[in-house]
Amino acid sequence: MSIEKRVRPAWVAAFVVIAYAMAGACSHEPPPAALSVVALMNDPAALDRALARCNRQAAAPTEDAQCRNVRAAIARLDEKRRGTFNDDKRKAQEAQLKFEQERELLRQREERLREQQQDEKPKTDPYSMPFVPPQSPGGEKAAPVSQPQPQPKAESGSPSQMAAVEPAATP
Question: Can you say whether the dihedral through the CA atoms of 89, 91, 94, 98 is positive or negative?
């Protein structure tokens, strides 16, 4: 029986060593898999984290697959942003053109409607209307306007002679 007692501690020791080795190997998490370009484009927070990690490591941008994916995702997002900006600009121009065309059509419709309304109104000829003398604001008839009287012509001569000539009395 004494042989059995010697075997147990060896087996126990071997078992403990193997258990620690397995536990140690299993406790290490594998490095995170590189996110795809599409995954980085769809998750801005992950893209920022990966970009910060790539900027901290000097050799990472050229060697690491994650950093290559980050660069590709940033390039695609930039192209998409530029394309969206151009699309938005083009759409805005098309909307402005459509607005201008609709405004012109509305103006033409309103002008035709105004012309029809003017054509429907009875036209008055001011030359065929009877003369009505103007009235004063108080309702009284205005006094007839007198015609200006012609002034006598001064004879040529000295100013003293002109002063001696009296103006003619008005009838």
Answer: negative
Is the pLDDT score of 130 beyond 70? yes
> Structural domain of residue 100, as residue ranges?
32-120
pLDDT attached to residue 136: 74
Whether 22 maps to a domain, the answer reads: no
Q: Are 54 and 60 in contact (CB under 8 A)?
A: yes
Angle, in degrees to the nearest 10, between helices 44-56 and 65-120: 140
Q: What is the maximum alpha-carbon separation in the chain?
A: 178
Claim: this prediction has a pTM higher than 0.85: no
SS percent in the chain: helix, strand, coil, step 5: 65, 0, 35
Share of the chain above pLDDT 70, in %: 65
- In the chain, the number of structural domains is 1
Which residues, including other chains, have CB under 8 Å from residue 94's CB and lie 6 or more apart? Answer: none
DSSP track, 35-94: PPHHHHHH-HHHHHHHHHHHHH-SSHHHH-HHHHHHHHHHHHHHHHHHHHHHHHHHHHHH
- Which tokens in the block code for residue 20? 């620690």
Give CA–CA dist 94/134, Å, rounded.
59
Per-residue model confidence (pLDDT) at position 158: 54
